[in-house]
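[step 3/7] fold_predict: job queued, chain A
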Amino acid sequence: MASNLSMVWGRRIKHIRLELGLSQRATAARAEIDQGYLSRIENGETAGRGIGDEVRMRLAQALGVRVEDIFSYPDTTDQETACPNAANAAGAGSSPTPATESATPSRVPSAAEQVASAREGSRAHE
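[step 4/7] structure written:
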């Protein structure tokens, strides 16, 4: 699972970087990391060691997006993906608790949508 998550994060970074027209070298310089390390991140080769919080923040800043837009985690609150034994272990039935029924997360624009919006804003000021 960690390997798949690392690959998803790497693809997101590369996609945003390419949409912005940035090279790996330029992006790595902006994020103050080694270009080889950025290459490994983009190729999902960080599963064993992970990516530190500081590097995540610097990459997001270098790309002009929020950390959550790149490094989001799968939603584990869905009934389909939640561990079926968790409810049984807690003595709960299959119905969700009132807290989970009312907790509807708001939609966060994708990184691509944010980039497009930023570009439109820049054009409006020209």
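[step 5/7] annotate
Residues 2-19 form the longest helix (18 residues).
The domain at 2-70 is CATH 1.10.260.40 (434 Repressor (Amino-terminal Domain)).
exit 0
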